[in-house]
Amino acid sequence: MAFIKAQRLILDDNGVVISGSASIIDTEYGKFGTYHAKHTVRERLGKVIWLSADKKDGIFLSPTRGLIEYCAKNDTFSPVDKDDPRLEGTNVFPRPQVHTVFGDVFLLLEFFRKTGLIKVLHTAFSEKSDYERVLCHILHGVLRDGSRISCDNFIIKSFASYVMSDVPLESLRCDTRYFAKMGSDATRLAFFRTFVKAMQKDNPDFGKGCYVDSTPLPNDIENNPFNALSCHGVGSSDVMVRLILVLDEKTGLPVWYDIIPGNVLDINTIMNVVNDVADSLGIVIDSLVLDSGYVSRELIGAFHIGTEKTMIGRMPVRKGYPLKELYDKVKPLLTKGKYTFVRKHHVYFGHRKNIELFGHNEYAYVYVDKNNALQKYRDFLLKHEDRFESMKDKDKDWLEVKYGYFVLISNIDTTPERLLTLYFNRCDIETVFKTSKDYLEMLPLSKWTDETVRGKILHDIIDTIALLLIRKKMDNSGLSTSELYGKTQSLMCFCNNAGMVTIETPSRQVKDYYKLLGVEVPGHVKVDQFRKDILGIDV
To answer: Quick one: 463 exposed, middle or buried, by C-beta within 10 A (0-12, 13-18, 19+)?
Structure first.
């Protein structure tokens, strides 16, 4: 037997709930004596919005379910419509602020429309409230740009509060319901199927050439939800979980992803993802870009010179791999200018050697990042001068390159410079995730579960897609996305009672930033028309 227990319930003179919270309590009889029963909290219902006189039925703003009705008589939950008369006077859907920030949100929504991302999201999330909720979280995830403002406060202060009218904004603060829905496999499948199909309209070859990128997710990322999934307060492991990303080879955009335990490093894990993508999306993966942990005898046997599919992997420091021997072979070439190139302000030595590994022919691309090597070499000399003096000459020579030395194994026949670019392309996606403090910082949830953790990852993947599309558009401008967001946020607007939004006169700089993404600054926006024409929401 269950009942609703309300706490600190305060009503006004008209019987409208002002404040109070509630929980579902289960009652158990028979085991505790004739006149005793045990009460257990089954679920916290959160803020009370409306409660029947007999307290057996109510509407609540639940931290896990959002705006929901619970009936204790039938022990059932039901959705609540925005126009439900019981919500009258409750301020669940308050009037938006008259003056709000216009520039960044409008720009991003218009950019999403132009790139087709709006249509992708609307198709993948067909329920109106789900669709608006997704848009709210993506706008917040991308545009807050490192600030700690919560999702509800961000939306309330922006133009989005006018056009996202079907979501109780207060529920966005701790949106377990949203992340739980995002965490379902059906949601992931629906999004990527829609996204790939949309991208192939403009680029028929999108997804035809893909590579798999195994990205470690270290424990030192602040509020990393994978720690909640994989670790109970134990911070000793360097990597608890790995994110397997399938990326389009030409655009670098995510096509699929999966999450695996950090200690599972074998070819079977990768091939399971390859087969999953083929079955789910009809996409054939023809290239792998992997960390050293995945490089093994089995991988070399499957990917070597002569095989159709290609692979790039970092040579591990393990028995059976000629890491130091290759250094001895290229040592006379390290000072030769013909083997030197520059990539992203770093000077590299690069040379290719043909080797035999576990009975198969492979290319070994030997590199020295001279910037890193020299810096660490200098640090060592300053800290360990006596130790350095006692070292043998050959060890001193090795120390000079040690901290910038690495080898890539591949069956791709190309130049060292080109292969390094192919390898480091994967780091572009890692950078987005590793800069979570700047862009995709993990949000607090009332309770982490396997489902909500996976939902947070899909959310971050979508944020990442949006961010990569923006960066691609801004590539030749020399400007950062932070500058774009910061400058456009200065553009304000106000909305009258008729739903007409008037935008203040933009500065020349704001106009220029809008032009970067191919968007014009409007003078006025009709809310209902914007919801229909831009967001595709029936008014």
So the answer is: buried
Specify the residue for token string 């003056």.
Answer: 99
Distance from C-alpha of 355 to C-alpha of 269, rounded to nearest angstrom: 26
35-48: burial string, b at 16+ Cβ within 10 Å, e else:
eeeeeeeebebbbb
Longest dimension (CA), the chain: 93
Sign of CA dihedral 222, 226, 227, 228: positive
What is the rounded (10 degree) CA torsion for 341, 342, 348, 350?
A: -30
DSSP annotation of 443: P
* Cβ–Cβ under 8 Å, residues 390 and 445: no
> For residue 514, is pLDDT > 50?
yes
**53-60 contact pairs (CB < 8 A, 24+):** 55/3, 55/4, 55/6, 56/3, 56/4, 58/4, 58/6, 58/22, 59/84, 59/86, 59/87, 60/22
Kindly report the backbone phi and psi dihedral angles of residue 71, in degrees, each rounded to the nearest multiple of 5, phi listed first.
-115, 115
Please answer whether residues 508 and 488 qualify as being in contact, where contact means their C-beta atoms are separated by less than 8 angstroms: no
Q: Which of 136, 216, 212, 219 is closest to 179 using CA atoms?
A: 136
- 450 contacts 176 by C-beta, under 8 angstroms: no
For every residue of 260-272, DSSP letters joined together read EETT--SHHHHHH
Neighbouring residues of 184: CB distance < 8 A, sequence distance ≥ 6: 451, 455
**Interval 58-102: pLDDT, tens:** 999 887 788 889 999 999 998 888 888 898 888 788 788 899 999
